[in-house]
Amino acid sequence: MQRPASVVKELLENAIDANSSFVKLIIKDAGKTLVQVVDDGFGMSVTDARLSFERHATSKIKSADDLFNISTKGFRGEALASIAAIAHVELKSKQEQEEIGTCLKIEGSEVVSQEVVVMPKGTSILVKNLFYNIPARRNFLKSNPVEIRHIIDEFHRVALAHPNVRFSMFHNGSEVFQLPDSNFRQRIVNIFGNKTNEKLVPVDESTEVVTMTGFVGKPEFAKKTRGEQFFFVNNRFIKSPYLNHAVSSAFEGLLKDGAHASYFLNLQVDPQSIDINIHPTKTEIKFEDEHTIYAILRSAIKHSLGQFNIAPVLDFEHNTNLDTPYQQHKMAATNPVVDVDRSYNPFSSEGTKNNMGVFQPKRENSEGWESLYVGLESKGGDVDARLNGEEFETDPEHISMFQNASQDTTAATYQLHRKYVISKIKSGMLVIDQHRAHKRILYEEFLKQITIKEGLSQQLLFPLILNFSVDEIKILTELKGQLEHTGFVFSKLEDETMEITGVPITASESEVSVILEQLINDVENEVPDSNFSQSDMLAKSLAKSLSIKTGQALTNMEQEHLVNSLFACKEPSITPENRLTFVTITVDELDKKFM
Ligand code: ADP
Ligand code: MG
What we know:
34% of the residues lie in helices and 23% in strands. The chain has 595 residues and is of the alpha+beta class.
């Protein structure tokens, strides 16, 4: 628990999980004195109530199968236990079939009283004096306006994800929100005001992989700050700089410089195809097939904008297969496994439209490939090889040449499913996760640059101007020194604007805004008292943004570089987040399988 808003999020989510139809949030002093959530859900028995404050006491996972089919918000049974450790908590709960309810008082994880109460069905949890026993943490809390802003953000997220549930919110005795149960559009309007209604353009797309519904804001209403941007995946709010990029790219050419589109988008996917446990605050998830989702999202939004006459329809062929930056349909089908554009990289320049409205590929700096290469060979690198690499990417003839070369049986590495690089070793083979391995490599590289302050910078032709909110600029200002060591050059950083004249050589201009958004996101989610070093966090965040992704085809040369650079690392076997970068499979193990 970092702040009152984190408590609010957990309590609201528990209320939703309890199948409530009305949820009330009561706040005093921006949550510093009181956070209370009252619901009319299915409640808890006496035993449930006592157990709910034990760590890992979740009622939500009954079998191992459930783990893969999580539809509830919580499932780790940690929230109430951690809240009870740092606050005074009073829980009242009654199940429908019971005559009376239970009231428990807990202080610093100890139950100090247990009584019976008369109350309607449902649960009320009252959290008083947050961090009363951790003064340092309490002092770390921001001013009331900032804390209440965070609380309202969490409230918005839960309320938007569940328009069929009635919500109300009170702060210091006055009503802040009163939201009747409604449909999604009405819920948005009830939260953001009547004027919002005319700004919404519906988005609707159904494919095998994902069903998308919701709205994007018309371009003329785009805002300077990234305020109203919401992704919900299976009714759970998530942050995704990657998907955000898909939306921005769908708006390409329609927004004024520095403006951000609003969106309220629901994605429904098979729960088995996502990993929501990747981040402790559970606002980040990992899709099995994020490239496809990116492409579908971008195409669906373009289609909507076109259909509602916001952008010329001519440009937007509503076929996700064609919606790639390359004209791959013109390429000879030399390789049966090419089902996705081999160099499809959403962070690359997306091409430009000529005056006929036809999509034409354009490579500004050959970002995807070059940044990988430079990342691996930061001390200058082999320019010729880089240029050749660029040609491989753009010229179909070179691609087929290259494919012949890759079939050379003497190759020391082999790429499997554009995800793993297989490398032969004496005892058998290494299976290297390309994304994780590259993250490790870049992480150590950035950490070194920040420490010895010698990151190489490439100068931009024109200064890049980006807009952020005041809070975000504050975060970036704190990290300015270290960012400069990685190669960033700032010519202005004030108010809500940032002007950049140089970027690290491992990054390209078009990636900068995603990198910085990811960084802000990472800083905001960092637990304040974990003794984190800012340099470490910065290096991790940059490595995460810039590392090659699953789905990216690698030439043999790139694969070998990856393997060599990985084993030149101090800790090659794990990512900065402590996950395995490779596994070994020995000949012995294979032999056993054949017995
Ligand atoms: P989790 O939500 O991950 O299971 P929590 O610590 O948030 O863990 O909650 C622990 C348990 O307390 C839940 O599994 C649930 O059984 C119970 N619980 C919490 N809040 C409520 C509520 N509002 N209504 C009914 N049961 C609740
Ligand atoms: Mg919970």
